[in-house]
From TrEMBL:
GO terms for molecular function: oxidoreductase activity. Coiled coil: none annotated. This is NAD(P)/FAD-dependent oxidoreductase. Residues 3-293 form the FAD/NAD(P)-binding domain. InterPro entries: FAD/NAD-bd_sf, FAD/NAD-binding_dom, SQRD. It comes from Flaviflexus salsibiostraticola. Pfam families: Pyr_redox_2.
Amino acid sequence: MNRVLILGAGTAGTMAANHLRGALDESWSITVVDRDDEHHYQPGYLFIPFWMKPERVKKSRRSMLHAGIEFVEAGVSLIHRERREVELIGGRLLAYDWLIIASGTRPDPSLVEGMADGALWRDRVHEFYTLEGSVALKKALADFTGGRILVHISEMPIKCPVAPLEFAFLVEDHFRKKGIRHKVDITYVTPLDGAFTKPVASKELGGLLRDRSIRLAADFAVERIDNDSQRLVSYDGRELPFDLLVTVPPNVGQQFIMDSGLGNDAGFVPVDKHTLRALDDDRIFVLGDASDIPTSKAGSVAHFATEEFIDNFLAAIEDRPLPNAFDGHANCFVESGRGQALLLDFNYETEPLLGTFPVPYAGPLRLLKPTRLNHLGKLAFEQIYWQMLLPGRPIPISSHMTMAGKHKPKE
Ligand SMILES: Cc1cc2nc3c(=O)[nH]c(=O)nc-3n(C[C@H](O)[C@H](O)[C@H](O)COP(=O)(O)OP(=O)(O)OC[C@H]3O[C@@H](n4cnc5c(N)ncnc54)[C@H](O)[C@@H]3O)c2cc1C
């Protein structure tokens, strides 16, 4: 029996397991490990503070895995690469021939002084990158009657780098609808030099922040949260007072990656960005947010990369050259409030551009412009996620980015 072991039954691990079960014969066992049996639709965390019921984002991980895949509910504590074994919390060992790491990233609020260890944590300092956090934030928003809100990114990279921007737009819309927008001062605080990483998207999204009277505090490298004076403090001495701080804590790789000597400083596994094979070990592939590939950490990236990975894996096990090269394709909706959203489509080489998607001129989706249809696309993504992506069903969007419909701004 040949053994594939997958660490993590989130977006990437579940898709990979289901695809591989269809591609490998019965001489292969596929085992997936995760610490619990609750798969979360993480994009839903953004909506929970505003309208989505928390129960709606959860499904059993086991129920998302096809027949013929073994699910082991346990935490991973260490990878013993030399013996090709994974040690689980409690000491059980799982042997593998091929290992797929799909353990994602996690927010770690202990990395900023005064965040998780501060008196204001989950009181006036909130996050929405966990289910618990987004539920607590819902209550904080309901109780908020006016004052200064900071929407803040601690450091990059984070998963779904547009989510804090989306939160800023949605919270602005929320207080507008409540009729108290004039009592709420909103600032978007980022370590980047603008609203987003790349010039075209940064210009469009920065313009939208201005339109909504949301201030931008750029190049803000957070040093600490001063809980006594309710201020966010940067290394260069700037201090931003707040009544409500909605932060994205630093996102790091999992502890077992660091303990196994596989990760970089932030705990992400260095891989070949085109094949997703670990640089230090031919028997390991890394899918989803757990790797160090230089594109967004996003479910769409996990999806496109996994599609490219399957044929590479089938080649690797037969010792053939790997046929596919992942191009870093990411496709992200950005909620902009007012029942609208923008769409970003980019890869390693091409920054997000203006245009239409997926069909040139016809769209129907618009790139980098807020439209109602983009928003409906974002909402439809939830069902596409559960019904198409996780089970490994094909969707009519190429895993390679195309320039069709995109146009570069004039120099
Ligand atoms: C607020 C928010 C909004 C988002 N919106 C979007 C969006 O609109 N579009 C989009 O494309 N993406 C979005 N994302 C990002 C998307 O959810 C992630 O990029 C995607 O889930 C990554 O998949 P993954 O499999 O790498 O990691 P995950 O889905 O996080 O799965 C990792 C799994 O590994 C398990 N694991 C970790 N460590 C261990 C261990 N030691 N032992 C056992 N199991 C372990 C975890 O329990 C988890 O199930 C959003 C994320 C957030 C937080």
